[in-house]
Design brief:
The complex is a heterotrimer of chains A (657), B (297) and C (156).
Chain A (H helix, E strand, L loop, with lengths): L3 E6 L11 H9 L4 E7 L5 H13 L4 E6 L2 H14 L7 E5 L1 H5 L8 H18 L8 E4 L3 E5 L3 H12 L3 E5 L14 E2 L4 E2 H14 L3 E4 L2 E9 L2 E8 L14 H5 L3 E3 L8 E3 L1 E2 L11 E2 L5 H5 L4 H5 L12 E7 L1 E4 L3 E3 L16 E3 H8 L20 E8 L15 H15 L4 E6 L9 H10 L4 E4 L2 E7 L2 E8 L4 E7 L1 E6 L1 E3 L3 H8 L26 E3 L9 H18 L4 E4 L4 E3 L9 H5 L5 E7 L5 E8 L9 H5 L5 E3 L4 H9 L2
Parallel strand pairs in A: 1-2, 1-3, 3-4, 6-7, 6-18, 7-10, 18-29, 20-27, 21-22, 21-27, 22-23
Antiparallel strand pairs in A: 5-30, 8-9, 11-12, 12-17, 13-14, 15-16, 19-28, 24-25, 25-26, 31-34, 32-33
Helix pairs in contact in A: 1-5, 2-3, 5-18, 6-7, 6-15, 11-12, 12-13
Chain B lengths: L1 H14 L4 E7 L6 E6 L27 H4 L4 E6 H12 L9 E5 L22 H4 L11 E3 L14 H11 L2 H13 L6 H5 L24 H15 L8 H5 L6 H16 L27
Parallel strand pairs in B: 1-3, 3-4, 4-5
Antiparallel strand pairs in B: 1-2
Helix pairs in contact in B: 5-10, 6-8
Chain C lengths: L17 E6 L3 H10 L8 E6 L7 H9 L4 E6 L10 H19 L6 E5 L5 H18 L3 H4 L10
Parallel strand pairs in C: 1-2, 1-3, 3-4
Helix pairs in contact in C: 1-4
The chains are: A alpha/beta (657), B alpha/beta (297), C alpha/beta (156).
């Protein structure tokens, strides 16, 4: 026979005004298994809790009910108090007779409130009789992190984790870290040069002892759960031995072949053995295998001949490395919507219609023109430039419905850069709205318009065509109501910020969610902005959606602080509300595996002594299970149950109704 | 067809490719067909094929029949409709496609009940499913026996079961209630419907779980209702309308009505028909964020 | 084990018994908010809290009717708001199936309600409870189900 104690709280007059707490206690005392009841003014007060502890000890209670306020309020308090008296905390249950009884049923005769309180408490008592003592789940935590993506957000996250004294592996797909920011000329609103503020951070990441750089590498597989991930990384063959390469650059010098540079977005050429840009980190070149005649046809090999340390190996192969980490930060960044989508703006047809990112390269002092604004077709300095905003953004039909957020600001920046670099040049901006929320952002845009002479036209461009060596841009100026036609030498399209190709594949490998644009989903858009639904995996930067540099950096730091907090203890304690499988009755139909929102259920082979598989059963991974119970309702044979909300508990509560 | 079937069975058993052929044979008086399990190539002439081969033999591939599983890799003689159940079993991980050799039988229909057979297959003795069959040419097979059927099912399914579902739908809620209470009141909880269903393969049926005992075990109206509702719910999106449950019910509860009703609901709500594609999960364990309903307020 | 308290109103009229299965994160919190805001509503509902609507087995609902519920209410987070990201989508699928089954079986659907109530929708919760209670009160006791008497002692 259980020995249950029922404590009915008056909550001052909050409960007692409409519930006869004494009567509730008396009635509950009549139920089998209830050996102690009382009602008290404030159960949550120190004397209240002390009374509870005393009663547990004196009456040898093995389960208690506190009928009081919402469990969201004081469940933790009372469970802790019960634990203090030696009771398993999960043998303490709360009946909510305040928020969902006394406060909503104002009958001063106390009839309705008392009846309901009695019913609810009785249901909880019967449920409690089916409770099992539970233990918090302890998960060991591997104190090493992986950051996927070496752009500014990823670099920041890696640096912060490393400075917190933990090891980090920074995985970057390209031969160098730096990401999109490495391409930028100057940055709004302060106009510092992007390289000048980014390069030191890149170098810091390379030199920090706690950071291991895996460049030219991609994540292939992720197993495990918070504290215990196993990540397989493909380290693509660079054909250059990273350890021995001194970065002298002789090989690049000698390579006789040139192809379009992806880093320069086709505005310039690079060698077949190359580093993407001069400040690359690590400063180790890679061979572009598909274009290398040595690798493809066994001809040439000039690079290997000049290489002093002999670190070129044409037979080098991809390597798969496995890393065990406790947390993962995903910072894979964004790309721009391919310009090819915008034929109506002349892209592809007219050579001097370029993207905003290409303009960044033209304005960059390390870019193909050395920072002079020269148009791609003939290298002439354009005397008038038209900037078109919202190319693909806020355009559900042809592009994406969302605002790309950074274009208003960088277009204003472009007009400024242009007016600084081309005196007397005239810039025009076609915009839908100017969105310049942010510290000193509005002033920045106003400066471009009022002091730098950029001509802002509110309206859409309808047609771009060539006439007598000029680019004719036709559009509406909706503020004056006039159609305008502008003769331009160059047109710059502010193309939409979109998710990276392959973002969905990576999300599936990681088990994190993404929206219809393949931007990753944060756990909660306001309160958990860098967490994902998969515990132990965090997000930073534009892989979540458009954002600017300060936001990306802030998120990198935020994600790092989450990782460091996780690593601050050797073990992580979790609520033991997880599912458990009855192995003898499991049908191995895998419905639970399919339904689980967390991929927390695995297939387990039961083997005989000889090691032959006898049968298969489902197995819940306690580290991953979040306790939603979707699997329980999906299981036809009732072979899986949710601790803390078992079928027996629910059944007992319904039966006591 | 029988000759081809027997030859194939013989070949499969002799080569050792399969260890048992699950098929149809005659009962002693040759009035009904009955499942046979042939392990010796010398016995293949036992196999028969005719419109009396109405049983859904896929039942014998389930975990309920461990002794058959123990024989080794099976070949099964299966009509298209039976194969739909095999497909569901594969989807639900009960075995792999390659674990079974499917001898698909081209079919022109079966009799609804074997006692109705007078030597000729006439439309009036065929079950509703045969009149609307789109798998007379079996759809997932390792070997096909029989000439290709040119039958095309009517665009709008027809037949007694559909008519009755429509009729019940058009009745008032209390009339439906009265109808089912009356039908279910005959239930004796013999569980024949469960035993014969290839998709009721649970290691332990929920009715046999007693902590807690969700479904009252004795045959009274309340327990009968919860059993029949639960049975139907467990088959939503999985049932292939093979009709074995109703055929085996000793008290003739029209289980086909409830099954077909839910098949219609699943088709309408999720555009899903079970038993065609082993890679698609049954709709009750997956979801779409765009699922449409109008009753959740 | 079950010992129903007859819910007689002060006036002595018939008071229906309504069982509600709600999720912990949205509807339970929404009901709490109705309390902290001191809104008033009908006292006929008895809540059973579950982590998620995805945990709700149709058997719960059947069992509630078997135990004399005159009405059952099921409520959770709005689509897209699930604490477990997709639990309520799973629930919605099941409800679509179950609702049609119950309807076909002849259950009076005015006695079985499904809803989404978020943690901030205290007013919606209050309106819902009042509406459901009044409707079921007007219908009277669920005699059809209660009439399916068990011939032996109740399970417990």
């Amino acid at each position: 026979m259980p020995r249950i104690g029922v404590f009915v709280c008056q909550c001052g007059n909050n409960i007692a005004a409409t519930v006869d707490t004494k009567k509730v206690a008396e009635e509950m005392g009549k139920l089998p298994g209830v050996v102690y009841t009382c009602d008290y003014k404030f159960m949550c007060s120190s004397p209240g809790q002390e009374m509870l502890r005393q009663a547990i000890k004196e009456n040898k209670l093995d389960g208690i009910i506190v009928s009081a306020c919402s469990p969201h309020m004081h469940e933790k308090t009372f469970r802790k108090a019960a634990e203090g008296a030696g009771l398993n905390p999960y043998q303490c249950e709360i009946t909510n007779i305040r928020e969902q009884c006394s406060w909503v049923h104002h009958d001063k005769t106390k009839a309705a409130g008392t009846v309901k309180s009695i019913d609810l408490t009785r249901m909880t008592i019967q449920r409690l009789k089916k409770n099992q003592p539970l233990k918090k789940i302890k998960i060991p935590v591997k104190k090493k992190a992986m950051v996927i993506g070496g752009g500014i957000a990823g670099i920041q996250a890696a640096l912060d984790i490393a400075e917190g004294g933990r090891e980090v592996i920074l995985v970057e797909k390209e031969p160098s870290i730096g990401g999109n920011m490495a391409r930028l000329s100057e940055t709004f609103p302060t106009m510092d040069c992007s390289q000048c503020i980014l390069t030191p951070k890149m170098v810091e990441a390379e030199l920090n002892e706690n950071i291991t750089l895996y460049t030219y590498s991609e994540v292939e597989k992720v197993d495990g759960y918070i504290g215990n991930f196993t990540v397989t990384v493909r380290r693509k063959s660079k054909y250059v031995d990273e350890e021995r390469c001194t970065g002298c650059g002789e090989c690049i010098e000698k390579c006789p072949f040139k192809v379009d540079s992806q880093f320069e977005l086709g505005l310039n050429k690079r060698k077949v053995i190359y580093t993407p840009f001069p400040q690359s980190v690590p400063n180790v070149p890679v061979i572009d295998a598909p274009n290398c005649t040595k690798i493809q046809k066994d001809k040439c090999g000039a690079c290997a001949i000049v290489c002093g340390p002999k670190c070129i190996d044409f037979k080098m192969e991809d390597k798969l490395v496995t890393e065990e980490v406790g947390a993962i930060v995903v910072a894979t960044g964004y790309q721009n919507m391919p310009n090819e989508r915008f034929g109506e703006y002349g892209y592809g047809r007219i050579k001097d219609v370029i993207s905003g990112m290409q303009f960044e390269r033209l304005a960059s002092s390390s870019g193909p023109t050395g920072g002079e604004i020269r148009r791609p077709s003939d290298g002439k300095i354009p005397q008038s430039v038209v900037f078109i905003q919202c190319v693909g953004s806020r355009d559900e039909k042809k592009g994406v419905s969302y605002c790309s957020k950074i274009c208003c600001m960088y277009t204003a920046k472009h007009t400024k850069l242009y007016s600084h670099k081309v005196h007397g040049g005239q810039s025009y901006v076609f915009y839908m709205d100017i969105r310049s929320g942010g510290k000193r952002y509005e002033e920045f845009v106003r400066g471009a318009i009022e002091h730098e002479g950029a001509m802002y036209l509110r309206g859409r461009v309808s047609r771009v065509y060539e006439k007598n060596g000029k680019i004719m841009v036709q559009g509406a100026d909706t503020l004056s109501g006039n159609q305008v036609e502008i003769e331009a030498d160059m047109v710059v399209l502010a193309t939409a910020v979109v998710s990276r190709d392959g973002a969905d594949t990576l999300a599936q490998r990681l088990g994190i969610g993404y929206d219809k644009y393949k931007f990753y989903n944060e756990y909660h858009p306001k309160l958990k902005p860098v967490e994902t639904v998969t515990a132990g995996i965090y997000l930073a930067g534009t892989c979540m959606g458009p954002m600017d540099i300060p936001e990306s950096v802030a998120q990198g730091s935020a994600a790092a602080s989450k990782v460091l907090a996780l690593f601050s203890a050797d073990e992580m304690a979790r609520e033991p509300i997880t599912s458990v499988v009855n192995r003898t009755t499991c049908n191995a139909c895998w419905d639970c595996v399919t339904a689980c929102p967390y991929t927390a259920i695995e297939r387990e082979a039961i083997k005989d002594r000889q090691g032959n598989v006898v049968r298969w059963v489902a197995k819940v991974n306690d580290g991953v299970c979040q306790g939603c119970g979707v699997c329980v309702a999906a299981c036809r044979s009732k072979s899986i149950d949710l601790k803390g909300y078992t079928d027996e508990q629910v059944f007992a509560a319904i039966n006591a109704f | 067809m029988e000759k081809t079937l027997r030859l194939k069975a013989k070949e499969l058993l002799e080569s050792g490719e399969v260890k048992v052929v699950i098929g149809y044979g005659w009962n002693r008086s040759k009035t009904r067909t009955t499942p046979v399990f042939i392990t010796d190539p010398a016995d293949v002439d036992t196999l028969v094929w005719n419109p009396l081969c109405v049983n859904n033999l896929s039942l014998y591939l389930t975990r309920k029949y461990k002794e058959i599983k123990a024989l080794g890799r099976p070949a099964i003689v299966a009509k298209g409709c039976d194969i739909r159940n095999i497909v569901v079993l594969i989807t639900e991980g009960q075995f792999k496609r390659e674990d079974v050799f499917i001898i698909g039988m081209t079919c022109n229909g079966t009799v609804y009940k074997q006692d109705l057979w007078k030597g000729e297959l006439t439309p009036n003795i065929m079950p509703t499913k045969c009149h609307n069959c789109d798998v007379r040419n079996p759809h997932v097979t390792d070997f096909v026996v029989g000439e290709k059927s040119t039958f095309t099912p009517p665009e709008v399914p027809t037949g007694m079961v559909y008519d009755k579902v429509k009729d019940l739908d058009s009745k008032s809620q209390s009339e439906r209630w009265a109808f089912w209470v009356k039908e279910f009141s005959r239930c004796v909880k013999c569980y024949a419907c469960r035993q014969v269903c290839p998709l009721c393969y649970c290691e332990r049926c929920i009715t046999e779980k007693n902590m807690p005992q969700w479904i009252e075990t004795s045959a009274h109206p309340r327990g009968n209702l919860s059993w029949n509702l639960t049975r139907a719910m467990h088959l939503v999106g999985r049932c292939t309308f093979c009709g074995e449950c109703e055929r085996s019910c000793p008290v003739n509860i029209p289980l086909n009505l409830i099954n077909q009703k839910m098949i219609g609901v699943v088709k309408e709500a999720f555009d899903f028909k079970s038993g065609y594609d082993e890679k698609t999960h049954p709709p009750m364990i997956v979801f779409s964020p765009d699922d449409k309903e109008n009753f959740i307020k | 084990m079950s010992g129903h308290t007859e819910h007689s109103a002060p006036t002595g009229g018939y008071e229906p018994k309504i069982m509600a299965f709600v999720c912990n994160w949205c509807t339970y919190a929404g009901a709490d908010l109705a309390g902290t805001s001191r809104m008033e509503y009908r006292p006929n509902v008895r809540i059973i809290k579950l982590p998620c609507t995805g945990r709700i087995d149709p058997l719960f609902i059947i069992k509630a009717f078997e135990n004399g519920a005159d009405g059952v209410l099921v409520s959770g987070c709005h689509p897209g708001d699930c604490h477990y990201t997709t639990g309520n989508y799973h629930a919605r699928r099941r409800w679509i199936g179950f609702k049609h089954l119950m309807e076909f079986a002849g259950i009076d659907m005015r006695r079985l309600h499904f809803s989404w109530v978020s943690a901030s929708e205290a007013i919606k919760w209050v309106d819902l409870i009042n509406k459901v209670t009044d409707e079921i009160k007007a219908l009277g006791p669920f005699m059809e189900y209660k009439g399916l008497k068990a011939t032996e002692a109740e399970q417990g």
